[in-house]
Design a protein that fits this description.
Shape: globular
Radius of gyration: 16 Å
Order of helices and strands: EEHEEEEEEEHEEEEH
Strand content: 35-45%
Largest sheet: 7 strands, antiparallel
CATH superfamily: sav2460 like domains
CATH architecture: Sandwich
Number of strands: 13
Distance between the termini: 39 Å
Number of helices: 3
CATH topology: Lipoxygenase-1
């Protein structure tokens, strides 16, 4: 099975594409353009949402400061503060069989740490992508390469996993925010402190 490449706004049924899929690795990656000589620290996170499109509780936010969801379904494998790694820079493992029934969607934001203080934005980042890998086989199922020029955005929602009846689907989002992770959090009912956002 060859990987399916998505463009912004497209979605696929993971359930139909790979019926064996129960546990997935969400791999996220990026390269620094390096124009300003400063280090970039991009942070991937996951936010679980209920049927109203909002978090059920602040504990639904999984990030470098809280690597595991309370339900045990989501595990952030750790913060990469440089983006120097080959392949995936950060990974989030999701066990689809353990997602609580009242969680309808999981969104995957990536934000630039201290973006305002460092005068950094996603216009200084290239080759950003998100992909889904079957954890059991190591095979990439689908990927979305972000190709737009996000010259003022300091955080992006890369993609989302969501329920459609009995299926799990994956949608390429690529929505930018100019007010960092705090802006993303507020849009999903998550009050983030300045220290986190």
């Amino acid at each position: 099975m060859s990987s399916i490449s998505l463009t912004k706004g497209q979605n696929i049924s993971l359930t139909k594409t790979d019926p064996t899929l129960t546990k997935v690795i969400i791999g996220l990656g990026w390269d620094e353009n390096g124009f300003d000589g400063q280090d970039f620290d991009l942070d991937a996170s996951a936010i679980m949402l209920g049927s109203n499109g909002k978090v059920r509780t602040p504990e639904d936010f999984i990030f470098y400061g809280k690597l595991d969801s309370n339900c045990g379904a989501i595990n952030h494998t750790g913060d990469n503060t440089t983006g120097d790694a080959d392949g995936d820079d950060e990974s989030i493992v999701v066990d689809l069989t353990m997602i609580p029934a009242d969680v309808q969607k999981i969104v995957f934001p990536v934000s630039i740490y201290s973006a305002k203080a460092r005068a950094q934005n996603f216009g200084l980042v290239s080759n950003a992508f998100i992909r889904i890998v079957n954890e059991a086989t190591g095979v990439e199922v689908t990927r979305y390469d972000l190709t737009e020029d996000y010259s003022v955005e300091t955080s992006l929602v890369f993609a989302e996993l969501y329920r459609a009846g009995a299926e799990w689907k994956f949608k390429a989002i690529g929505q930018g925010f100019t007010d960092g992770l705090g802006g993303i959090g507020r849009s999903y009912g998550l009050p983030l402190t300045d220290e986190v956002a």
